[in-house]
Amino acid sequence: MRIGELATGTGVSVRALRYYEEQNLLTSERTPSGQRQYPDSAIDRVLLIQQLYAAGLTSKSIADLLPCVVNGEATPELLTRLAAERDHIDTRIADLTTARTRLNAVITAATTNLRTGQHCQRP
Length: 123
Description:
Elements: H1 3-10, H2 14-22, E1 29-30, E2 36-37, H3 42-54, H4 59-71, H5 76-115
């Protein structure tokens, strides 16, 4: 498939796909006219890259981990690194959950104050 088709199939911009290639996260073949051609498996790979970015990994980390994740191979060092990334994500989730709880409390208090006619006074 061509780069535009991969972009459409994954929801990732053409620019991002080119960046993935620059970072050695994704590979393509070139047609005689110079257009990029991707295998059908590129869709799953791009979606995995997106998930790893969303988890907070850098392109360098993803490039190091991707071959092992895709091939299912794991060394003790890789498992340690993946566990550390997972722990980092767990910490971020806990922080976001705490922030959401606080926001919910503020929204509840503000809604109650509006119903009773009380308004926030600025200092």
